[in-house]
Every structure is written in structure tokens, then in C-alpha cells.
Amino acid sequence: MAMQKRKIENESPNGTKRKKTEKAIITAMAQDRGYIIIQRKKSKLQEDNEFPPKKLFEALENEIGKERFQDLRRSTLALPGVPIDGGEASEALLNYGIDFSDPSDPELNPFFQDVLGCSFCEADKAMLKVIFWARNETKLRRYTAGRPSTAYIYCPATAEGLNDGNGLFRIVEGSHKMTRGNIDRTEATPICLQSNEILIMSAELMIESLRAEERIEEWIEEWITT
């Protein structure tokens, strides 16, 4: 995650004030950037080092079809991304170890309120899709991810994880609140996601697509809107 906790002066003896202030700073930083990266929470019963379990990734590949899954990974199309229905397998993987509707979560709820103006539960949800981001030479280098008052949720669809070298787009941080001139002058930030991490972002962010020579990867996407 790109966030770092800052040192807070004049903390209370029990550290309560410091913890609350740090959470407020982290929330403000995420809202300024327009996205957060969160980790799935491992329960005490989950002792397996594979997290999420390998079987969830295998179930998704089987749902789509192993041969088709691999063909789509190697595809080259004049499209920004190829959405595929992953069925219940994609839903199981995306929601593993995370409760997006938890009102007490110090990151999730404030972020959804800022982007959507409501909680996760109150927002409209779209069907989950597995996105295969194909290589092509005709894609726009930069464009707005989606429409206003919408949030996108992404997680890797393979245990390999994602980064800007194997398929994940780059983000122009804070571009959802910038003028066009400032956006053009701002470098895009590479985003890395481990298999146990989830990206949640404002659809008003400017993203930078892959170069034609970069290989594709895939992830699960859900978008919610007001």
C-alpha cells in the first residue's frame, strides 16, 4: 500500500488519540488520491499459507474454461478490456476475507461515503466481471476510468498478483479533483496488487493504459454507483 502513517505529536498516554488521528490522516490521504488498497483479513482458523486459497483461483479458471482462460490471456484486441462472466467463482474470490459493507471499517466506509455519497450497502451494484486487459496499438494512453459517482473494485484473478508490468493500469493520483492542465503535467503512478490485496478507486480517476508491447493480465472487477 502506498500509504504511510505519520508521526503524531502530543498523543494521549494510552495511544487512543494517536490511533484516531492516524486513521483520519490515512482516510484523508486516500480520498485525496482517489483510491485505496486494502488487504484481505485472515481469520484465526485460516492457517494455510495460500491466501486466498489456490482452489478459489482454480474454480474461477474452471468456470470460464481453462482453454478459453489461457487464450484470453494471450489475446490482442482493439478493445480496452474484455469482460467475462465469472459466475459465483468470481464473487467468492472477490469477497474472500473482506466485508465491504462493514460500517466500522476505518478505511472502507469513509472512502465509499466520499466517492459515492453513501455506504456500500446503499449503493447500486453491477454484476462482477473478469477483465482480460488485451494488448493493442490503438488504445488511448490516458482516459477517465468511468462515470461520476461510481467506484470500481478490483482484485487479481490469478495468484500471481498484478502490477504495471503484467497488466494493471497506472493511476494519475488525485486526477478526479484536478484540472486538465494539472492532469497532463502529473506522472501516472504504477499500482501493485498482491493476490491478497484489493484496489478500490473512484471511476473519475484518470488511468494510463498498457503499452502495446506489455503483456496482458486479468482481474475481477465490480463497480458500484449511486
Quaternary form? single chain
Regions with pLDDT < 50 over 5+ consecutive residues?
Answer: 1-13, 18-22, 212-217
Rg from alpha-carbon coordinates: 18 Å
- DSSP helix fraction: 25-40%
Order of helices and strands: HEHHEHHEEEEEHEEE
**Amino- and carboxy-terminal Cα gap:** 27 Å
CATH class: Mainly Beta
CATH architecture: Sandwich
Sheet with most strands: 7 strands, antiparallel
According to CATH, the fold-level topology is: Jelly Rolls
Can you tell me the number of structural domains?
Answer: 1
Categorize the overall geometry.
globular
Number of strands: 10
Q: Strand content of the residues, in percent?
A: 15-25%
Q: What class do helices, strands and sheet pairing give?
A: alpha+beta
Calculate the mean pLDDT score and round it. Answer: 76
Number of helices: 6
